[in-house]
Specification:
The complex is a heterodimer of chains A (341) and B (335). Chain A has 341 residues and is of the alpha/beta class. Chain A is 31% helix and 24% strand. Chain A has 12 helices and 12 strands. In chain A, 50% of the residues are buried. Classes of the chains: A alpha/beta (341), B alpha/beta (335).
Chain lengths: 341, 335
Amino acid sequence: MQSPDNLIEIRNLKTHFKTDEGLVKAVDGVDLDVPRGRVLCVVGESGSGKSIMARSIMRIIQRPGRIVEGTIRYAAAAGSEIDLAQLDPIGSAMRNIRGGDFGMVFQEPMTALSPVHTVGDQVTEALLLHRSLDKKAAEAEAAAMLAKVGLPDPKATLKRFPFELSGGMRQRVCIAMALICRPKLLIADEPTTALDVTTQAQVLDLLRDLQAEMGLTVLFITHNLGVVAEIADQVAVMYLGRVVEFADADTLFHDPRHPYTQALLRSVPRPGLRGARLPTVRGNVPHPLDRPAGCPFQTRCDFAVSGLCDREFPVATQVSPGHIVSCARVGEFDRIPEAAQ
Amino acid sequence: MTAAPLLAVENLQMHFRNRKGLFRRQPPPTRAVDDVSLQIQPGETLSLVGESGSGKTTLGRCILGVYRATAGRITYAGTAGEPVELTTLGEAELKPYRRQIRMIFQDPNSSLNPRRPVVDLIGECLEIHGVAKGRARSERVAELLTQVGLRPEYMSRYPHAFSGGERQRIGIARALALDPRLVVCDEAVSALDVSVQAQIINLLQDLQAQRGLTYLFIAHDLAVVEHISDRIAVMYAGRLVEVARTEDLFATPLHPYTEALIGTIPLPDPRLRKAARTRLGGEIASLTNPPSGCNFHPRCRYATADCSIKRPALREVGGRQVACHHAESLSLRGA
């Protein structure tokens, strides 16, 4: 039974890719709750499976990728649960959810938009598909949404092509497209990574405002810890296809318990450390075809113990309400941060 | 600045001509770099920051000799301290100096030829400049790989066999192959993951200490820039707006654009999330049709009528350089 506080509950999700070189376990046993009406950030390095996890929710995984196990329970309203993992990705039920209930914003606004269709065609498309509006009403609604995302002169913008817009404006168009059907969930996959710092700040502010105004649930995927601190209510840290730590933003930044989270936070340059050597995580993220046994982080972890960490994936431990850590040694330290520093 | 600079840029201008349409008048040029003067001291790390379209990469490429500046001078101090005016040299005369000024690129995936093994990628410039070939070349490549933290046995492998961070190490080894004095790092750590980025920043700092390198570090991530630089030059729409020592720039910015940039840094601590901070609205000024007066005035919170008429020159204010009419009267917020 799903908690009414969660819009989505993911259990033991496994999305694998059968390639010629071998089986890539991009997502390998993710448990994650997406709380209703909040901003959940999923943070991880490349290869952590964060994008594949998000695409699994949208059911837009492309071959040879496939959800091989697990459930993605989605409750539009309390009591009306559907397991998205069981739906046909191109069936009408999933198509109604995708674009209707769920909107998505991608990293590269230029590749996410069609270069040969006007902004108006692209923003109204979802309205015409999901809500039986006529063209005129759809255009009026699209113009209103463009104004909402902060585009100047929305009527004229509807007639323009993406190449006529700057990067920041294109990303605003993408956000308008994702939100036009008033979705319950907005998945934003690195939406500010390709933008300038000044534009990034503008887009983050916009997403925050829209989230509050529309009561949206946001799943925000990023690798930038500064962006996480700026926008997240809750944070899930992923490493090699698993969620290793889940906490509210303040706890994650001030009382991280997983050695990977700690190492990641320490490696960010911050004021006052100028010129000093940055603490690093040793080694590289292992190759996806060469996953270590047991805890995925054990090969790079300073606390790894052989015979323990290289055996099984550590069970998720709740260290305090809403703070879940998957580390076999988490109970041994009262507060790992002090031990680590 | 009393010491002789390693490189001095004076009134540098790089305009790109735009194509004329049929029956149309010649459109105005794109003023990517406009009247920039800057000095780089030996052994320092000078960072160039600004939004995309600010001209920072173009300036870096002019210094490397990739672009021939349309006006202005670049003077380089040769190994014996003799001043060499790079902007007047022909291709053959420039070649010895190309050894001394090298570049590290942003994207290690597109800057390494996927069809050539590492030994060729790093060793090619050794042959071109007649430094080493054959066995000596391989030995030199092995030495370079060790210095950047890669195993020399890997030299016969191709780029695809390496991770992103390792590829960037190959790019660094290639830039260092000819023992340069000045290295232009164009967004050298921007494309890397957080944990790998820290490794590469440390490597760049170690190499600088060992070899006495001078870095021109082009970047947009101010947190990284603050960590690595001695001085910072801020560019906006082709012009320098402020040059200062790192700690001064972050503590007390003198130019409104610098203040705005500092205000956009996402800090890795939710407790420092500023509820209603001032954001920089709008977009960077057009380089083909720049605003009158100060390029920044349409976006500036402090702009007065004067700002749209008179173009502020880069001038000394309290031992620092800033291009703003109101630098003395504003008290701007730092980090």
